[in-house]
């Protein structure tokens, strides 16, 4: 995760924070980034955290929000997305599960006219943003199926940077869990985070979000029984972990 963080700092955060330095070298923000890795590794979480880090506009889209059976409608949707991004710079445009609109078609299946128009419009928009360094727009696509992405999207001038997102390491797991607990009542000095690191090995970002929710439910249940606010403790978190196995690895015996 530390390598991933440094890549995003070098390619996105630092160029936005020190644009004059990068202009001297005719460089700017990396406009096209493809995040890939197994489900639940935190690709969406990373993108949202990046937007928060650089205090920029953020647009999150799924293929179902773009595609339409009406000829021309999908390409219009794509055009409108990028018009909005240009009006709200700096901006991150995040396409979650981009393989839904940018995948290869195997078995001889043909794309519909509407799909072809949408793809061509999306490729045009991505190329324009990569060519115009004055545009502070970063396009990030996330996929669990990197090999299924059409080569037209991965060639130079489009998604130039391809970053593998590994499962969260120990430090990242704690950071993710803290984020999901921060708006909830927690006895912070009663949490042994070093122990939690060991307990959560193999847990994905989405697993950890569930652990936070289940910990809160346990504390809430006690609050109802005792008619008094009970804050989340190590016990609640440990119970939630015991009841919810990791999705990325076998649960270790403890």
Strand order of the largest sheet: 2-3-4-1-5
CATH superfamily of the largest domain: P-loop containing nucleotide triphosphate hydrolases
Tell me the CATH architecture of the largest domain: 3-Layer(aba) Sandwich
- Number of extended strands: 5
Provide the CATH topology of the largest domain: Rossmann fold
Whole-number mean pLDDT: 84
DSSP helical segment count: 11
Q: What would you call the shape?
A: elongated
Strand content: 5-15%
Integer count of domains: 2
What is the level 1 CATH name of the largest domain?
Alpha Beta
End-to-end separation in angstroms reads 26 Å
Order of helices and strands: HHEHEHEHHEHEHHHH
List the keywords.
coiled coil, elongated, Rossmann fold, ATPase of the AAA+ class CDC48 family, 11 helices, AAA_ATPase_domain
How would you sum up this structure, described in words?
Residues 29-169 form the AAA+ ATPase domain. Keywords: ATP-binding, Coiled coil, Nucleotide-binding. Residues 222-254 are annotated as: Disordered. One of its GO terms (molecular function) is ATP hydrolysis activity. There is one protein chain. The chain has 254 residues and is α/β, with parallel strands linked by helices. The chain folds into 2 domains: 1-164, P-loop containing nucleotide triphosphate hydrolases (Rossmann fold, 3-Layer(aba) Sandwich); 170-243, Orthogonal Bundle (Helicase, Ruva Protein, domain 3), CATH 1.10.8.60. The chain has 11 helices and 5 strands; from the N terminus they run ααβαβαβααβαβαααα. Strands 2-3-4-1-5 form a 5-stranded parallel sheet, with helices on both faces. The longest helix has 22 residues, at 205-226. It is elongated, with a radius of gyration of 21 Å. The chain starts with a helix and ends in an 11-residue tail after the last helix.
